[in-house]
Amino acid sequence: MLALKIAVNILPALLVLIPLLCLAQQERANPFHGDAEAAEAGRGAFRIYCRPCHGIDAKGGRGPDLTTGNYLAGNRDEDLFGVIAVGVSGTDMPEYEDRLPEETIWSIVSYIRMIASEGETPVTGDPMVGEKLFWEKAQCGSCHRAGGRGGRLGPDLTTVGRSRSAAYLRQSMTDPNADFSRGYQTLIVVTLDGGKIEGIEKNYDNFSAQLMDSQENFHSYLSSEVRSIKRELRSLMPAYGGSLSAQEIDDLLAYLVSLGREE
Amino acid sequence: MRTFLAPSIHAAGALVWIVLLATMSVVTVAFGAEAITSERLLSAQKDAENWLMYGKGYSAWRYSELSEIDASNVAKLVPQWIFQSGLEGKSQTTPLVNDGLMYITGPSNHAWALDLLTGRPTWHYSATVPKEAHGCCGQPNRGFAALGDRLFKVNYEGTLVALDAKTGDALWETFIADYKKGYSATGAPLLVKNMVVVGIAGAEFGTRDFLDAYDVEIGKRVWRFWTIPEPGEPGGDTWGGDSWKRGGGSTWTTGTYDPDLNLIYWGTGNPGPDMDGDVRPGDNLYSCSLIALDADTGKLKWHFQFTPHDVHDWDAVADPVLADLNIKGNPTKAVIQANRNGFFYALDRASGKFLFARAYTEVDWADGIATDGKPILIPGKDPTEEGTKACPGLGGGHNWHPTAYSPQTGLYYFDSRNGCQIFYKTTQGFVEGQWSQASTTDRITGDPSTSSILAVDPATGETKWNFELIAGSASGLLATAGGLVFGGDGDGNFMAIDARADKPLWRFQPGGSVRGSPISYRFRGKQYIAVAAGSAWLTFALPD
């Protein structure tokens, strides 16, 4: 009841406040627009705060390529500011407004603007063909989900186009061991009777291991009850460079890049 | 039978209470009745019943002389109680125990007194951290110091507070340093004589740091030692230009004390900015050093710099443990440290003379340590714009986690990481109160970094055993006369290891990363082990 009263009293105020906040957001202007010195300061901040996901050269990695000049959240300085300040829901992008002063965020925006002149490396494939490959020939869907379909062994790719750069996705297809997330390392358990179970690591410490095999079966073992447990720094995902043509890789990439962008 | 003292006596019922308490005192003993005196602190290492200071005793052995729990029965160890703090953040604290009560500090300015019998809190202290206080590395707190009926702890925003041990009420609070400049306080104070000695953090924000001593009665500052000297002072010429003003040298962990020499030993952190050494030419004293200060005056007696002109963030804040060792046939009063730069060091603790150093993890930046104690540098290991691989990584081999020395085995135990990182230097202007590291690091894809608990002969630096922690190291260690070493890992396993071999004998999964440091005490004639894990505190004992 109390919550209802609060809601009744606060709601009208919020209805007034939200448009005002939106207006304030819209009216934000980059105080460092065109300021090369601020952009250089932003480069330093970028290397410290943004590099882990977007790469030391901002060409992407776990996070999108920021040198393209085209951004899902919008291409204005204030759009970029908003993404850095409040993060992106559903992705790994955190909010920085409590960690960085506005000036630093604006300087990062200025740096991104400065380097965003190269244009996006075009993704030339056909996403429709790529989608067919995903579910049929390449069998990506046997391990990955997209739009509510598919397997659960690998990461859900439903919005991967928003959170990974095209270069990163291409590398993931051709060299899946180049980088993979915690939780997707390979564990191999040999049981006392010589049985071998291989799967992706869910947990592994000195005393036990939990893993999911390729059939999505969950296994849990105490170290004292098996012959060996071994972690391998490789992905269970096969490299597709040899099994798909260059055109098919491009098509598949086009599909992956499209995932999550339709919103 | 034991009972609680009333937290306060109201005037109207005072007489009744006094009579009642006087009567009770005939047949009961009150919790916390035995005050912590300076004499008790001097012999705290031998006080097996309690745990009176951060490192157990002034030498920071973290060794309990209790032996009821040993290799033959540790497998039967079971939880006795669990206290859930309900806090966010990881607990890195070392609890204190005195006469029936446990005193714990939590993250973000929380603290409690817990009843040893039940784990129930008898009081809770909290103070709101200012929203603008965002110093380095979360808001942990590593513990109390105690004297008389008072407890002393730092608050994150850079204050020192004295609490009434019976009620948790704040008796005084003293300003140490301004959080708006990037200072923060997280370490457990060290009680020396009638002073609370306390360090500060801030090097990642371009602060100039120090070690302070405050009077226990009123919180007035007795002395301050600036870890970064001014021009004209000894060591001031090791800083180019005015870089000393932002020189760092944090003192964010806890030191040790030798009462015979009347010296306080304290490790210092990295120079600022961390990885851009170009803006601070010189050795950058007294960063990445061990300093020995006269306890009464705070004057520098000697210093030893482990990593001159550090550019890899290799703080020298690991425990400076005091041990009397036989080194090369000579009985030696030594101070030892497993430094973050990958080398284990032994120094003469009276003079600071370098005795020896030995790598305990993968090191690729120095080809050993010369006879004068300086590293023999391998060129090309400094951070660059493009990135440079160096080993160990940013967190070093051994970082700050509390260590343990067992006089029973003669071994020194600490956790270590074996691995490398890419170090990037970057240009960053200084803005007061803002992060000023001028750097970043990256993992190396496919680099099989590992973590371990090491047992090292402190007289030679030789590693006797290496117990690999698959889930990574996170906690401090405890050694006991039961021939055991207790510690935890990043996935929450709390375990006991045979002190003479890398063999786990017992483990418990508390459901949260073990980042606190275990202690041992005796209560009602029974040995207990206690540790913080996740946001909880747990105690263990053998079944009745």
Write the CATH homologous superfamily of chain B.
Quinoprotein alcohol dehydrogenase-like superfamily
Can you tell me the CATH architecture of chain B? 8 Propeller
Largest sheet entry of chain B? 5 strands, mixed
From the 3D structure, determine the CATH topology of the largest domain in chain A. Cytochrome Bc1 Complex, Chain D, domain 2
Number of helices of chain A: 8
Unreliably modeled segments of chain B: 1-29
Give the overall shape of chain A, derived from the CA principal axes: globular
What portion of residues of chain B belong to β-strands? 35-45%
Helicity of chain A, as a percent range: 25-40%
> Largest sheet of chain A, order of strands side by side?
6-5-4-3-7
CATH 4th-level superfamily of the largest domain in chain A = Cytochrome c-like domain
CATH hierarchy, class of the largest domain in chain A: Mainly Alpha
**Class computed from helices, strands and strand pairing of chain B:** mainly beta
Would you give the CATH topology of chain B? Methanol Dehydrogenase, Chain A
Number of helices of chain B: 2
Please render the helix and strand layout as text.
The complex is a heterodimer of chains A (263) and B (544).
Chain A: H1 2-27, H2 36-54, H3 77-86, H4 102-115, H5 127-135, E1 145-146, E2 149-150, H6 160-163, H7 166-174, E3 186-191, E4 196-204, E5 208-213, E6 218-222, E7 226-232, H8 246-258
Antiparallel strand pairs in A: 1-2, 3-4, 3-7, 4-5, 5-6
Chain B: E1 2-3, H1 14-27, E2 29-30, H2 38-42, E3 63-64, E4 78-84, E5 96-98, E6 101-106, E7 110-115, E8 121-126, E9 145-147, E10 150-155, E11 159-164, E12 170-175, E13 190-192, E14 195-198, E15 210-215, E16 221-226, E17 256-258, E18 263-267, E19 289-294, E20 300-305, E21 321-327, E22 330-338, E23 343-348, E24 354-359, E25 366-369, E26 375-377, E27 388-390, E28 404-406, E29 411-418, E30 421-425, E31 439-442, E32 450-456, E33 463-469, E34 478-480, E35 484-488, E36 494-498, E37 504-508, E38 519-523, E39 526-533, E40 536-541
